[in-house]
Amino acid sequence: MGSLLPAAGQRPKYSQLYVFDPQTELADRLSNFSSAERSLRPDIVSGLMKLFDVTNELVKSFRRIRSELNDPASINLRLRIVGARDTTSRQYELPTGSELAGLIPGDFLPDKEERDIIIDHRSEGLKRITSVHPKFDALHFPVLFPYGEDGFHVTIPWKSFPPNQSTDWIEIPESLLLPSSGNPIHTITSTVYPDFAQRFHNVSYLTERSIITPTNANVTEINSHMLALIPGMPRTYFSGDSLHTDASDPDRLEAEYPTEFLNSLSFNGCPEHQIDLKVFAPIMLLRNLNPSIGLCNGTRLMVLYLGHYVIKGMIMGGTFNGKTVAIPRIVLSVNDYRWPFVLKRRQFPVRLCYAMTINKSQGQTLQNVGVYLPKPVFSHGQLYVAVSRVRTPDGLRFLILNEDGVPSNCTRNIVYQEAFVDLHQIDSDFSYSHK
Fold it and tell me: To pair with 311 at 20 to 30 A between CA atoms, which of 66, 255, 364, 405?
């Protein structure tokens, strides 16, 4: 930070640009860039100036100095950018201009406010700002902090919960844990699917059980292991993938993203390029096909026939339990922000469901559930969703691995406490309004 006004014969720079001369401010800003950088568009710079004038409380503080500088009494004027504010900041509200800065006439002793920034009317050289000042980031990177909000500072309050109210790591009762084993996949599958070799074709047996895990990678690993236990060779279905774009040069995109690359892409809610299936394997629909006959997203079926154009299956559970239906190939569109195109994938909208992700298990009610956690859950309420899929504790088992792959009895339970703020008051207001 320098002085409020430039030295005689020098052009304004840094914070002086907000104060010196509004008529030449745009030209002064552009002149501060090197010749290699002067290709900046003036209209964009002007637009940013207008934006900050409206939104940024720090910029507003500098602008207020303009009128004061015309007063001869302002010779000792200083701008004070407050470090430690007296008022308590609201967690999700921006501070007001009066909380950020003030114009100070006359003498002032900076050493009484060590965390404040004091900018003199005129001074020689630059003053270094400590990187832990609340306004360090806002002053250095205004485009990233357009409202003049606080960046990192040492007075950020630490928020924690008492040990008896911790919602982070929890201990699972010993009665729900599976014993340690050298092969966790074998342990979880043999527990949830006992006597599988004799009962793999029993629809009631498959309907009442599943393994639930956080990620699609874990789901694929378990499903592949289970499919290999069914006698016979699998039938493999490959998708037909293509890209669609509004770009002016689609040929270039097709060259950059060949079919082999499109085949390798995986998306949530979209079938894989390669699907391996066997008769009697359980599958789950990934799209709504015909809700009137039970073909909804999340419906589980047992495979009865694997044809070239259709898969025939029997619905497992729900209103249409036992109904035989046909599933066709369909074209699915995937628009992912990571790629500059829309993927068109022609494939059967199904995947094996010996195991399913926690998110996909919502709506399922099962008799036997194995919760497989090679890594902790990663989103609010996921652990609750996994545990609540089972009817009774007798049908629930956990297999938890720590960072070293060793079985553990502790896992993370993510709960956003903000969701429960003032919940008691809301409940009281609701009860009162219905009296």
Answer: 364
